[in-house]
């Protein structure tokens, strides 16, 4: 059982609980991106176990006809054991998902993993002609060039501000500078991409910017937010735009929960309030 403090941000221990959460989201026109919590596996057994769970999950999603995708972390699928392990494991998950027409997102971890993650994404996206997406981080100085590289690759790209804490030689560390970068990168993507843009942000200013760019260019996009964050806004936006909620599940919730609290201390207050009010 999950401790009550995690309930706001994590759908439960089991895939069944995550899919039940997605079913309730779908009733409100919000789609689900299901993530099995887990990262930095340093043994093959854990990597293979999580990959097998993702393969079962995509079969369950296809069987349930839910509007749902999955999202995986490179270090969950073996990147810490080597790029070859990661690419083989990821390919097996993406193949299983492609057979069932389920979309696979690849989360982006710290800046030392960006090359390996983008290379694996590009190879699979070209092989499957889509069906897979990757996250890029606006706080990294390299991301402008990465967006240019990805412009003619099939699949989707999720733009986020960045949840890790990279050093200043590779990243912008001032939040206002990251916001400016996020806006510029959105402008580039809406101008140059055919579609497939994921706006992964809770920031009303960034979402407003994206919707204005959509009006101007007509480029297709989706808004993505996390479970437990601005959920009322998610339901409101879903009346007009495609909205996806990132839905984590599993018992390895601590580091995910910690990242949410570091991002915004209020998240701890929200979580505690949820515990106190049942
Ligand atoms: P912030 O800059 O944190 O906040 C800006 C404004 O948004 C706030 O002033 C407030 O108005 C509003 N806001 C933000 N949080 C809240 C809240 N809890 N309650 C109410 N209002 C709030 N990062 C990665 O590095 N790799 C990934 O793969 C990745 N995947 C992600 C997937 C999704 C779907 C999302 C939504 C985020 C993901 N992130 C990922 C995290 C991301 O990088 C940011 O750390 C996180 O989204 C916080 O930035 P923000 O744009 O939401 O807004």
From TrEMBL:
Keywords for this protein: FAD, Flavoprotein, Nucleotide-binding, Oxidoreductase, Proline metabolism
One GO term (biological process): L-proline catabolic process to L-glutamate
Reactions listed under catalytic activity: L-proline + a quinone = (S)-1-pyrroline-5-carboxylate + a quinol + H(+)
Cofactor(s), names only, from the UniProt record: FAD
Name of one Pfam family that matches: Pro_dh
Entry-linked Gene3D superfamilies: 3.20.20.220
Domain Proline dehydrogenase: 18-270
Domain of life of the native organism: Archaea
E.C. number(s) listed in UniProt: 1.5.5.2
Top-tier EC class: oxidoreductase
GO molecular function: nucleotide binding; proline dehydrogenase activity
Pathway: Amino-acid degradation; L-proline degradation into L-glutamate; L-glutamate from L-proline: step 1/2
Protein name in the entry: proline dehydrogenase
Organism: Natrinema altunense (strain JCM 12890 / CGMCC 1.3731 / AJ2)
């Amino acid at each position: 059982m999950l401790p009550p403090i995690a309930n706001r941000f994590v759908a439960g221990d089991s895939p069944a609980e995550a899919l039940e959460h997605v079913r309730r989201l779908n009733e409100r026109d919000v789609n689900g991106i299901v993530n099995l919590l887990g990262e930095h596996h340093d043994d093959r057994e854990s990597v293979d176990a999580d990959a097998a769970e993702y393969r079962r999950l995509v079969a369950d999603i296809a069987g349930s006809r839910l509007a749902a995708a999955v999202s995986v972390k490179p270090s969950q699928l073996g990147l810490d054991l080597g790029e070859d392990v990661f690419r083989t494991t990821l390919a097996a998950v993406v193949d299983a998902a492609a057979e069932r027409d389920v979309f696979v997102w690849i989360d982006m971890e710290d800046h030392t993993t960006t090359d390996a993650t983008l290379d694996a994404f590009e190879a699979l996206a070209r092989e499957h002609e889509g069906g897979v997406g990757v996250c890029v981080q606006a706080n990294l100085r390299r991301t402008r060039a990465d967006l240019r590289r990805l412009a003619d690759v099939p699949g989707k790209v999720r733009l986020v501000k960045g949840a890790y804490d990279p050093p200043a030689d590779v990243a912008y560390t001032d939040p206002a500078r990251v916001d400016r970068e996020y806006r510029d990168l959105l402008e580039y993507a809406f101008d140059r991409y055919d579609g497939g843009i994921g706006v992964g942000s809770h920031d009303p200013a960034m979402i407003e910017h994206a919707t204005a760019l959509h009006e101007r260019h007509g480029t297709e996009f989706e808004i993505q937010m996390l479970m437990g964050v601005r959920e009322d806004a998610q339901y409101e936006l879903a009346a007009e735009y495609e909205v996806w909620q990132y839905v984590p599940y599993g018992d390895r919730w601590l580091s995910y929960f910690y990242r949410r609290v570091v991002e915004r201390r209020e998240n701890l207050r929200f979580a505690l309030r949820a515990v106190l009010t049942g």
